[in-house]
Amino acid sequence: MPANPFDIEKVATLARLKLTEDEKIRLGGQFERILEYIDQLDRLDTQAVEPTTHVLPLQNVFREDELKKNFPDAEYLPLAPRQDKGHYEVPQII
Amino acid sequence: MFQPTLAQARHQLKDKKYSAVELLQAVYKRIDAFDSRVQAYVHLTRDIALKQAEAADQKISAGEDAPLLGIPIALKDLICMQGARTTCASHILEQFVSPYDATVVKRLKDAGAVLIGKTNMDEFAMGSSNENSWFHPTHNPWDLTRVPGGSSGGSGAAVAANECIAALGSDTGGSIRQPAGFCGITGLKPTYGRVSRFGLVAFASSFDQIGPMTKSVEDAALLMNVIAGHDPMDTTSADVPVPDYSAALPQSVKGLKMGIPKEYFTSGIDPEVERAVQNAIQSLESMGIEKVEVSLPHTEYAVATYYVLACAEASTNLSRYDGVRYGFRSEKSGTLMDMYTNTREEGFGEEVKRRILLGTFVLSSGYYDAYYLKGQKVRTLIKQDFDEAYKKCNVIVAPISPAPAFKFNEKLDDPLQMYLSDIFTISANLAGIPAMSIPCGLSEAGLPIGLQLMGKHFDEATLLNVGHQFQQTTDHHLKHPKL
Fold first, then answer.
1. In chain B, what residues touch A46 (CB-CB under 8 Å)?
2. Which residues of B have a catalytic role annotated?
3. Which CA distances in Å does B271 have to B214, B277, B403?
4. pTM above 0.90, yes or no
5. Which of B176, B193, B252 is nearest to A56 (CA)?
6. B460 in helix, strand or coil?
């Protein structure tokens, strides 16, 4: 694996997290040790091993295509921090 | 002292020794007396519970019956209950009131249960000590200076302190079994897919399972009879017949084989834990269960594999907390992007951020194959270890944790040490198998020690059978902390 690959600023941007300078230093040091620990997986030869995405042999779980109103606006929209005229309100985008 | 098990409370309610309302009041009296010190709950649902208890009493006097009629049950605060807050012990969901019931909650209500409150946990179920709760830590009822374990530490402490009759927890890497072990109670993580995850706030979706945390194995079977089963609302829920778990309890265990995995008895395990587990193995042998040695050679890779995969899944699951549709939104917002990042910076605690960052990294371009895909492949190897082992045995017997409950702040500054405290529980989640923690003794300092029973996929019945028979011949589960 590449040495010291963890660019905390880049990863934080991808994760939509804003970190304080303090957090960057503390978490950065911790990640170095955690990734070092994870790197022990490299000792295993897994070239011929299939990855497990799911522990049960479930495939193509279908349901009937019924028209149902599952989430009524009147109950769900008020959960939003801000809403207006039946819509979610967010800061200006354009 | 007031401490009925679920099975006892059911009989006593039926025999009209007390009413459901009286039972509820007795439980709230214990909470009022002890929870200021234990802090197992994050909020109580007194009004909802009282109505449910009154309805239960009406049914009892009308001669009706239901599996949990009038039984006060606590829910870990990541299980959605309509009209009640569901916070995941996070600032970002602090004010969230669920508009719907989780499938398990619907099933509990249909079975007549009285839902008394929501229990504390590590934020978003990420942690092994309950120190990551946004609200407050929960204290271990056996020693208030120690952690109750996590992440279902609130449910574990509430059961141990007799602040409920039974509770539900959830287990992603050991979050039912480790606190059950630390608190001296019974905790079962069912097979992945056995219990619906609909309405369980997602942490790592290929691992999460809801399960019972109870005062006895008999009680765990009673709860499993209610919560297990296929649910169309959860596409990963398995359409597999559910047996009557209570009927499995009295069966003979003679002739069963228990596998002892040598990798679980290596250096690093506390000698007191090893002694208690070995004594339990002897008790199981004297009950007629044959001991065979098995090997789970990839055990040492479980923690690393788990933290790659679970963090990856968490980073995608938790991307939904953006301050738009529900939950907390930062007031500092400028642009839309600022709103996202400020909301998440202010709303999440440090451990949650740590795992989101790690998960984002292992899924990011250039590192996916080296970390995430590698983790998925090692997961296959770990699963194959169990397939091999179960050719030789019906159950696998091991410790739950390398040591009993630790002190507050002992591992908080070193996340890797905290992660390693789950070393014996994580493999069951990676393999998707059922696993249970039952008490098997106390340390010299008076701290509970847990025994782990792991089973084949969908064979919770054998775990409950063996666990119940063990509890018929031992009294570890009958010991209570002095509060």
1. 374, 377-378, 381
2. 76, 151, 175
3. 27, 10, 9
4. yes
5. B193
6. helix
- The chain-wide mean pLDDT, for chain A, equals 89
Q: Do B374 and A46 touch (CB under 8 A)?
A: yes
Residue B125 tokens read as: 């179920």
Mutate to test the interface with A, among B236, B377, B385, B458 (most CBs of A within 10 A): B377
Residue B27 near residue B166 (C-beta atoms within 8 A):
no
Per-residue tokens: B336:
């839309």
CA B245 to CA B232: how far, in whole Å? 22
Q: In chain A, which residues have their Cβ closer than 8 Å to the Cβ of B383?
A: 52, 55
Instruction: Give B385→chain A minimum CA distance, Å.
Output: 13
The answer to whether the CB of B481 falls within 8 A of the CB of B161 is: yes
On the question of pLDDT at B464 being above 80, the answer is yes
Q: How many CA atoms lie within 13 A of B59 on its CB side?
A: 22
Q: What is the pLDDT of residues A5-22, one digit of tens each?
A: 689 999 999 999 999 999
CB proximity under 8 Å: A 47-86 to B: 49-56, 58, 61, 63, 75-76, 79-82
Query: Is the minimum CB–CB distance between A38 and chain B shorter than 8 Å?
Result: yes
Q: For chain B, which domains are there?
A: 6-257+392-478 (3.90.1300.10), 300-378 (no CATH)
Domains of chain A: 5-43 (1.10.20)
Tell me the per-residue pLDDT of B50-97, one tens digit each, with 9 for 90 and over.
999 999 999 999 999 999 999 999 999 999 999 999 999 999 999 999
